[in-house]
Design a protein that fits this description.
Length: 324
């Protein structure tokens, strides 16, 4: 018995840790991976051979949350802090927003739509310099922030249902649903990337969609909970070879149906947005020829930096700032 409790306890800890990541490691990786297939051949020549890197490093910004205090606010915006939809009180322009609310206050409530634009600038610069490592790093990371901006609970102060007694819904929506259903049912083949004329408008529009959907994400979970006894809502099921307590498969499938495949739709939109941002950066950099970079590898020094991030994540006991 003691042994079983031990196993449950450790796995419960693992479950809690897993829940702390935006979109979950699984979905972030998939989103970056599928974005590659939307690119034109001139970019595919570089992105396809590096597709595993883009998939694997999609979660680096989350790992950095264990080491860098400034990292947290880049992943969300509690937009409901700024009044009611469509939150016109909040200037979309960073400088104007700082003048009105102060930088400290903006950081406190999250800055994802602005950070995506900063990352676009960095990626464009990497293309101008034809810097292989920086193109890869910034491509992987902008993918992360764009995907986060598509998650409804990343645009709500009730980000983990903590204000409505629905703790755990964050990880449920962005990890449990896709991990259970994506492989079998989701369709990630989506046309092609487009040039984005106004990246600021584009990302703000996605954030507003997220904010608008946050209420249904929460409401539908509450409604469905009334149809499920506690022992039917949660179950001890296998995950990565371990038996853990989590939202039951039946509850997860019913929820996905009731939100009308919202998770799949947001994943598809994320994929499209990421490929389009990558493409836009490349066009804005003057469409540099990427052939000469196609066979490049990271230098030892560059690889070491990625490894150090991984180590600080593995040894860091807690996320700095707010946890999901
Ligand atoms: Zn994140």
């Amino acid at each position: 018995m003691k042994k079983i409790i031990g196993v449950i306890f450790t796995t419960f800890l693992m479950f809690s840790i897993n829940q702390a990541f935006c979109w979950g490691f699984y979905a972030h990786g998939k989103i970056n991976y599928y974005a590659v297939f939307l690119l034109p051949p001139e970019m595919m020549i570089l992105y396809k051979p590096n597709i595993s890197f883009l998939e694997e490093h999609a979660t680096d910004p989350d790992k950095r949350r264990y080491a860098v205090p400034d990292e947290g606010p880049r992943h969300y915006i509690d937009i409901d802090y700024y009044g009611t939809y469509p939150y016109t009180l909040l200037p979309r322009n960073w400088k104007e927003a700082v003048e009105k609310y102060s930088e400290d206050s903006l950081l406190l409530h999250g800055i994802v739509p602005w950070h995506v634009q900063k990352m676009l600038y960095r990626l464009t610069d990497a293309f101008v310099k034809k810097d292989f490592a920086m193109i890869m790093k910034n491509s992987a990371e902008i993918g992360h922030y764009i995907a986060d901006a598509h998650v409804p609970l990343h645009a709500s102060s009730n980000h983990n249902g903590q204000l409505t007694n629905q703790k755990g819904i964050h990880g449920f929506w962005e990890s449990r649903v896709p991990e259970l259903i994506a492989e079998k049912e989701f369709d990630f083949f989506i046309g092609k990337a487009n040039y984005i004329n106004n990246p600021g408008n584009f990302i703000w529009a996605r954030v507003l969609e997220s904010a608008y959907a946050a209420d249904s994400v929460l409401l539908i979970e509450r409604e469905l909970t009334q149809d499920f006894a506690d022992d039917k809502k949660y179950a001890f099921e296998e995950r990565n070879g371990l038996v853990i307590k989590q939202y039951s498969s039946a509850f997860t499938i019913a929820y996905n149906k009731k939100v009308d495949n919202m998770v799949e739709k947001r994943m598809r939109q994320s994929i499209y947005a990421i490929a389009s941002f990558w493409y836009t950066a490349w066009v804005n950099a003057g469409q540099p020829d990427l052939k000469s970079l196609a066979n490049k590898k990271m230098t030892d020094e560059e690889s070491l930096q990625f490894e150090q991030l991984n180590q600080s994540w593995k040894t860091g006991s807690r996320m700095i700032g707010r946890e999901e």
